[in-house]
Design goal:
- The chain is an alpha+beta fold.
- Helix content is 35%, strand content 13%.
- The chain has five helices and five strands.
- Strands 1-2-3-5-4 form a five-stranded antiparallel β-sheet, with helices on one face.
- A hairpin with a 3-residue loop joins strand 1 (90-93) and strand 2 (97-101).
- Helix 1 runs antiparallel to helix 3 (59-68).
- The chain binds guanosine-5'-monophosphate.
């Protein structure tokens, strides 16, 4: 498991370097030395790359880089939010799901609804039969959130799946958007 994760991390670093001419300033470490529990300098450099691109509006490059570590088991920012290690504005919580305001809202109401336990659900495309219950629970929680936010008569639920959909955090999440006239088709 650890070696699979290390190889995946190694290959993602190579591919990330090739992505768009961004070159990491230091040579990469031996793959077997990469410890996901205690992020190595290589993983931290990759995370910095993702943050830079997301912050500069290059969502596609950031999403590609994020996809590379999706299935390594590496924790995401949402793990810290669930553990309440970093602040978030929680609007709904039960034993299975957590809903909080998006830090970069795309509408007056923009809430993220996530399962508290990821259980392999890095993205919707990875769903298996055992996930059916929590998937239904997430959708129902989205409706409860819309009610609480006063947008139940007009809201949108979005799941970005994979790099081509610009998914940037690999812990399944539903975006609940509303509070303004939403356009169709989306971008
Ligand atoms: P995705 O692009 O993966 O569909 O959506 C990830 C969402 O997570 C983005 O809308 C982004 O703004 C949000 N996000 C990323 N980091 C944080 C954070 O630290 N706090 C909160 N509240 N939202 C975040």
């Amino acid at each position: 498991m650890a070696s699979t994760a290390a190889l995946t991390t190694s290959s993602l670093l190579r591919r990330s370097r090739a992505l768009r001419g961004h070159v990491f300033p230091k040579p990469l470490p031996n793959p077997s030395s990469i410890n996901l529990a205690r992020p190595s300098p290589a993983l931290l450099r990759l995370r910095r790359f993702m943050c830079r691109n997301a912050a500069s509006g290059n969502e596609e490059a950031a999403a590609k880089a994020a996809a590379e570590i999706a299935d390594t088991g590496a924790p995401t920012i949402f793990d810290k939010i669930i553990a309440k290690e970093i602040p978030s504005t929680i609007v709904y919580e039960d034993d299975k799901v957590l809903a909080f305001r998006d830090v970069n809202p795309q509408a007056p109401v923009h809430i993220l609804v996530i399962p508290k336990i990821r259980d392999g659900l890095t993205q919707l495309g990875k769903a298996e039969p055992r996930h059916a219950e929590v998937l239904g629970h997430l959708l129902f929680a989205a409706k409860l959130v819309a009610e609480r936010e006063g947008i139940v008569d007009g809201f949108r639920v979005v799941i970005n799946n994979g790099p081509e959909a610009c998914q940037s955090v690999y812990h399944l999440h539903l975006h609940v958007l509303g509070g303004r006239q939403l356009k169709w088709p989306p971008g």
